[in-house]
Request: fold
Amino acid sequence: MVFRPPRLAPLLFGLGALLIALALAVMGIMVLLETSVSLTSFFLGLWVFLLLVLATLTGWRTYCCWGLYYHLTRDALTIHWGHQRVVVPMAEAPHLIESRGKSIKWARGIHWYAYHVACGDVDRLGSTRFYATHLSPAHLTYLQAAGRSYGLSLENPRRFARYLETCVAMGPLSRQKARIEEALLARLPLWRDRWALAMFMAAFLANLALFAYLSLRYPHIPSFLSLHFSPSGQVDRVGLKLEIFKLPGMALAVLGSNGLASLVLHLKERYLALLALATALLVQVLFWIAAVLIVT
Reply:
């Protein structure tokens, strides 16, 4: 049987935040289109980019909230949230514990208005994983199984409790293991490789800094620039100064392609993935040198 938590409050909050972020991003784009290239326009573009990232993250978390449900069978209780599946076997005899205003010390995770997908330390229960949409801690229901605790939000806790007791009493049809399943993309080993993430962030920040540098220099450079030189050192291509932004654009494309390649390479050979990211970082440095030589 499927049990869904009350979701109206967090869904309205998430949709409101999403619409506000998108509206501010659209306003930023409209202002950006009417602004000449400068360091100010760079920061405005960066602001729009961050708003779009925020809107994407908010939209995903709102979608995950909408799809949150608890599936109870004779074999297991399965908590479905976004890319995660939490399996609690019936063989572990899970049982419910009323909230009764237990204090919670929150830790990492998602904490929105009436929406918590996170870990927390609960009074007299210890470490607890929450997949809940509660307006108040008093509305929570706790489930314990084999020393693990979960915080749930149930519209009808008594009905859930009766069905849970029935499933436990009947016994499982198949043997299940307690586990947390994640989608393939979420469990890629690259996300836990600090060196890989550090190189990617260094390359991205270097690219961002190049955009900022060229935006700062743009009002002071001539209308036409020497963009390419022959092997003998003679200028063989002159272009408008706006074309100077092709350099960080191409460097960003290299970073994107190498970043995607590293996701796949890391599955087979970590050092090949690190090499791809190191190459992307080196490309940022080379394009920095080329841009400085052109505009000075």
Remarks:
- DSSP finds six helices and 13 strands in the chain.
- The chain has two domains: 1-185, 189-295.
